[in-house]
Amino acid sequence: MDLCSLCQKISPWSLKRVRFDHVRAPKPEKCILHHQSFVDLQESGAAGCVLCQLMCKSLLANKYTPFQPLHPEAPILLAFRQTYIVYLNVSAPQWTEIIVACGERWILLAAFAEEGCEAARMNAVAGRRPCDPGSREGFEIVSKWLQDCLHNHSGCRIGEVG
Questions:
Q1: If you write DSSP's letter for every residue of 2-46 in order, what string do you get?
Q2: Sheet holding 32-35, edge to edge
Q3: DSSP β-bridge partners for residue 106
Q4: Window from 3-12, 98-107, 129-138 with minimum mean pLDDT
Q5: SS3 69
Q6: Which of 2-6, 22-26, 93-97, 151-155 has the lowest mean pLDDT?
Q7: How far is it, in rounded angstroms, from Cα 49 to Cα 161?
Q8: What pTM does this model have?
C-alpha cells in the first residue's frame, strides 16, 4: 500500500481530538492541515497515494454533507473523533474515526490498527479488523472479543438498558 509523505505521518499522535456533532465540519483551528487544497489531494491520489485516493473518492461521493458544495481550493483538514468504544485504562488517544474536512464538506473514515503495530500494542486505536470480517474466522474473532469484554472488562456496558 503506497502512501504519500503526508499520509505516512498520520498517526494517533499526530491528529487532534475534536468533539463532533455530525452536522458541521470541525473548526479549522481544531484540525491539522493535510493538503493545501482539494486539487492537491487529487494530485497526490493520482500520483499513487491510496489514502489520498480514498479521501478524494469519499469527498466526491458526498455521503454525509449532500448540500455542501466542494470547493477545489479549500484546504484538506484532519482530526479524529473518539467514540464510546474505548479502553478506560489507556492513556494514549484512542482513535475510532478520522474526520476529513474540505470547507463545509466532511467525511468519516473508520480507523483500524494492524495486529502488532505500535498503535495496536498501545491500544491507541480502538478498532481491530480481522482479515475478512464476513468470514467464519472474522465472526469467531468478534465473538471472542465480545466474550472477553463481558467476562473481563468491568467498565463495559454491553447489554445495559436505559
A1: ---HHHHT--TTTS-B----SSSPPPGGGSEEEESSHHHHHHHHH
A2: 32-35, 76-81, 97-102, 105-110
A3: 101
A4: 129-138
A5: coil
A6: 93-97
A7: 44
A8: 0.69
